[in-house]
Amino acid sequence: MLLYDSAVSGNCYKVRLLFAQLGLDYTRQEVDVVDRSGRDELLGELNPALRVPTLVLDDGRPLAESNAILWYFAEDTPYLPEDAYERAQVLQWLSFEQYSHEPNIAVARFWVSFAGGPPSPKALEGRQRGGYAALDAMEGHLATRSFVVAERYTIADIALYAYTHVADEGGFDLEPYPAIREWLGRVALQPGHVAIED
Q1: What is the pTM of this model?
Q2: pLDDT tens for each residue of 44-63
Q3: Domain range 2-74, CATH class
Q4: Which class does domain 84-188 fall in?
């Protein structure tokens, strides 16, 4: 398999983390997340959105969007429950991650740590406000749970961990979130865990 990847992208990291935990072999091709020139030639026939991660399966079929890739590879593994309700809960949290969490925490992180600053202080403040709202929701949920769904480690944890564990790079303070900090520790101790820089 070939993964069009970025070492700094949390969305790409999700895929690399699951692949490491599943022991899957693949090849990585680094794609610059700041300089988007050449994306159409590189990814145009594989992913109309021209985003990473984009994966080319061994049979040549492309698969894009980090959470879709997680779902595909988690089938019939411990990382995706068999119970229909628990599977729906995983999907619920994958949707939360993409609609409420990632657009705020990941974008603030990109602006602060990789793009050289936000379009305006007001824009950054808006993303951080949204990011803290997402963290508040996670803190309340994790206050009585060890993991996000079904009291076990699933792709819901992988999806939310990716940008939460580097939220400080977007100016977020996790000190007021003890449940999140404890959960981050539990995720980091899972077998096969790799760091985002690996």
Answers
A1: 0.96
A2: 999 999 999 999 999 999 99
A3: alpha beta
A4: mainly alpha
